[in-house]
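To the wet lab folks,

You asked to see what we're planning to order before we commit. Fair enough. Below is the target structure as tokens, and below that is the sequence we designed to fit it. If anything looks off to you, flag it before the synthesis order goes out.
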């Protein structure tokens, strides 16, 4: 499932020079989270994360490969500086 999601979002995000760093699907408490960590040379600002989320959301809706209800969590890779 996660490989299918990554394959579907990789190319559209590549057009913005964004790479998919990690994807996880996990349960925390009563909720499931689909966590997608993105990276870009020189980092990602909040506007770019929002833009990427707006690209990812309709792709996930179309794929419809997760049965459980979940919260989408898109974030940028932290930089240890």
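Sequence we intend to order:
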């Amino acid at each position: 499932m996660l490989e299918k999601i990554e394959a579907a979002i990789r190319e559209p995000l590549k057009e913005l020079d964004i790479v998919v760093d990690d994807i996880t699907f996990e349960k925390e408490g009563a909720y499931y989270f689909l966590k997608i960590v993105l990276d870009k040379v020189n980092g990602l600002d909040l506007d770019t994360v929002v833009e990427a989320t707006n690209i990812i959301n309709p792709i996930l809706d179309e794929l419809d490969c997760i049965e459980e209800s979940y919260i989408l969590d898109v974030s940028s890779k932290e930089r240890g500086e």
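Structural context that might help your review: The chain has one domain: 2-76. Strands lie at 19-28, 31-39, 71-76.

Thanks,
Computational group
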